Amino acid sequence: MGNWRIGFSILGILLLAVIVWPLVRWAFIDAYWVGVGPEACPDKTGACWPFIRERFDQLMYGVYPIPERWRVNTGLFIGFCLMVPILVPKIRAKALWVGLFVSVYPILAVILFSGGVFGLEKIQTSLWGGLFLSLVVGVFAFAFALPTGILLALGRESKIPAIRILAGTWVEIWRSVPTLVVLFVAVIMLPLFLPPQYEVDKLLRALVALSILMSCHMAEAIRGALRAIPAGQYEAATALGIGYWKTQTHIILPQALAMATPQITNVVIGLFKETSLLVVIGLFDFLGIVQAVSGDSRWHLSSARATGYLFVAFVYWCICFSMSRYSSYLERSGVAMHRR
Q1: Which molecular function terms from Gene Ontology are attached (predicted)?
Q2: Rounded Cα distance, 77 and 93, in Å
């Protein structure tokens, strides 16, 4: 048995070397690192990192006006500061911070990013783009989907047949439709059913569609965790005379959300990766900006486009891998607390 393990390990290392080594050589060893403009990358034998350096601002912000980009940085920084108390297990009053992040932060972020009030210049959403747009869509969709998913999960477990049937039908309809179809319906078909004088922002339509879709997937993850809660928890709360909502918010949901953390993380990671589909409906997210800027004819002799795709893949991997590791940390912490 030991020889078989050694053999398979050696074979795995060889296969990994055969697959990974050419990519490493192209991306780093034979890559072009210095210089300015297309002349820095005369051919496609190696990655063209001067292209990423030259277009970095566009990859991050899209065509958001340069003098106003401080608003983007400020808004993202505030969001990060609000997420820290939520993500750090030792910080208490989670409900307060979650409430601020879900209810107050979206309003503040819209004011900063869009402007038009308090003396801020109005910035059309058509100018939003790059990694900034991907983060906005992911964060806003999550802020809407988490509370909505909880309500849908509770509705599917309700003892009232009408609520249970309505919630179940809503969830199953949306979960059965591919994400790309939902985006097309929201962006292309929805205006056909509205009066001509009503014009709904394209980004808002896509954001609502993704939020609804994400909330339905999240509802199923939470519902599975609700069913894993022992019946004795409900019976004990009923015996003590605790009402339905207090039972859910103080006893059941904290346990269910802890159990559902891996599944919720999978939903969030899946949604964040699916923000790349926004390019199909004409929104220049992170991937869309790479496709747009790498189409410059001045760079056609270089490997600018392939380098851009590699850079996008690496950034997506870093963000999704970080979320996955954090989910594993929360899961281990929850198991340890349960054992104590």
Answers
A1: transmembrane transporter activity
A2: 21
Nearest alpha carbon to residue 48 among 264, 268, 308: 308
Q: Mind listing the pLDDT tens digit of every residue in the chain (340 residues)? A: 556 777 777 877 887 777 788 888 888 988 889 888 888 888 888 899 999 999 999 999 989 999 999 999 999 999 889 888 877 777 777 778 888 888 888 899 999 999 988 889 999 988 898 999 999 998 888 888 888 999 999 999 888 899 999 999 999 998 888 888 888 888 777 777 777 777 778 888 888 888 999 999 999 989 988 888 888 888 888 888 888 888 888 888 888 887 888 888 888 888 888 888 888 787 888 888 888 887 777 887 778 888 999 999 999 999 989 888 888 877 776 544 444 4
Name 48's bridge partners.
32
- Say if residues 274 and 263 touch (Cβ distance below 8 Å): no
Query: What predicted TM-score, i.e. pTM, was given to this entire model?
Result: 0.86
- The Cα–Cα gap between 209 and 185 comes to 9
**Strand locations in the chain, DSSP E?**
none
* Topology classification of domain 41-64+123-339: MetI-like fold (1.10.3720)
User: If you write DSSP's letter for every residue of 29-85 in order, what string do you get?
Assistant: IS-B-S-SSGGG--SSSS-BHHHHHHTHHHHHHBT--GGGHHHHHHHHHHHHHHHHH
